[in-house]
TrEMBL record:
<dbReference type="InterPro" id="IPR008775">
    <property type="entry name" value="Phytyl_CoA_dOase-like"/>
</dbReference>
<protein>
    <submittedName>
        <fullName>Ectoine hydroxylase</fullName>
    </submittedName>
</protein>
<dbReference type="Pfam" id="PF05721">
    <property type="entry name" value="PhyH"/>
</dbReference>
Amino acid sequence: MAGIDAARTTAGPAPLTAGMVADYHRDGFLLLPGDHLPADVLAELIEAAPLILAQEGPQRVLERDGVTVRSVYGPHRTDPVVARVSRSPELAGAARQLLDDEVYVHQSKVNLKAAFAGDQWEWHQDYINWRDRDGIPRPDLVNVTVFLNEVNEFNGPLTFIPGSHRHGLLDGTDTDSMPAGYEDEPNWMATLTATEKFQVDRTVIRRLAEAGGLVSPKGPAGSVLMFHPNVLHASSPNLSPFDRGMLLMVYNGVRNAPRPVENPRPDFLAERAVVPIPLAV
Ligand code: SIN
Ligand code: MN
């Protein structure tokens, strides 16, 4: 691992320096190098990914072509390697520093973005789903992403508008209908496909990008990318011959526990039990 710094906001492991924490709050994202996780842990994760992606069930979402796996949700609940990694000081400790709170995993997923066939994620912010569908009161969550392949300019890297998280939730339009090709699926599927359900106004996206620019963090397998639930982000289809697998864990602060909602999403999409991850002090 790259090195533990003494800067800490809560007791326990603190893998981020004070400068990294400040960069995250300024930009809304932070990329850590490929050696952030121990090499044996990364190797186990990469080995586990095909097994996770092969598990059929409602937690597995296909691309619009109906055959390519797009995402598998909830692997921290079902896969022992992901469960262990999600509770590691390198990731949970970093999330705790960024949120300045004890943390638990609200959601996890593997997004494959398969070679040739992996589809886009349109411009969006994540928090609107976690607020409106899961009852989470504040945007005090963080996405922690581990690259399972090299991510480069060819295979559909995540793209951010730096600083856009500081504008809060942006104006947009919520679509009620199910996206084409998913008409027979349960309605929670509408937020998981290549057609974005909550469309941020393009004039707003253009204005923010003109001011803040665009950044696509890239790096080898093992790189860890953290991003804020309100940072505006998107990713292009993968036309390259190389998969772009990513494990994403969404940590929430325990002080930000979800409130009751009328129709809770399935537990592989939204954790209802708030149990802090114990980290050694
Ligand atoms: C992606 O995997 O490119 C998108 C992930 C996200 O929007 O959270
Ligand atoms: Mn997102």
